[in-house]
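seq:
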Amino acid sequence: MNRILVVLIALGLLVAAGAGLAWHGYAVAPLALPDAPMRLRVERGASLAAVGASLRKQGVDLPAWRLSLAARLRGDAHEIKAGVYELAAPLSLAGLLDKLVRGDVLLFDLTVVEGWTFRQMRAALARHPELRQDSAKAADAEILARIGAAEKHPEGLFFPSTYRFSPGSSDYEIYAQAYRMMKQALEQAWAARAPGVPVATPYEALILASIVEKETGRPEDRAMVAGVFTNRLRVGMMLQSDPTTIYGLGEGFDGNLRRSDLRAPTPYNTYTRGGLPPTPIALPGRDAIAATLKPAETRALYFVARGDGSSEFSEDLAAHNRAVTRFQLQRERQ
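struct:
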């Protein structure tokens, strides 16, 4: 009887020791990760066996059966999230599974700035080292076709915002997301537009919003700038916008707008052509779109930069000319 008791105690101790070792190997013992942080890509719908195979391929000695068993015992074997993970020592098996279940994936940011041109947006995406450059050799029209855009010209179609993505994502994913967000923002603003705004379609509103974006130095002036251009369109006055004229000059513009440039025969020269230019000239933000479709109620037809980012607004040409002279003299004295 005593021998049986001794055997049972010994077996119990062995089981307890085994359980302790198993717990230590699960919750405490660090995995043999490389010294530098490594990345683990988990594809959508991947099994734990596939995850284990990927780890072994990168030199991490973690048997797939051990990974699968631990996840099943936890009850979350089917809750692993897809994405790219950054793994750094020290990390236990429990810590690894926690990350995979939480979806603690590695994400990068890319900010598209209000007022950028599409060319500037393309350059920013091309510079990002974590984006897959699938559109590198594509013409602008090919990018639009790939993301399902019906428009033929890309300018103005992409929403300025900060986009987050997993490393190795296609640049087309950013284009598609930014295009959808712009469509949504424009549709919402169009539905809430003020009565009588002198634009016939959401695309015309986008064109005017891009001009407002480029012409506004301070956010508080945005609605007034929109009001000036709204008034000019209503009375049939030329927009006479420097940014549209500069856009029409393209890469040939050297930063100095000359009188001869104001006579340049481009479709974007609003000093020689009435109405709106044929396309937007930049990527307008949400506030510029809102101001365009709900402009300030004003009789102003003119504005001039004061030199501090703000603008002076005038209702007639004489007052405008006086303001131009005053602020030019101030700049010359500085």
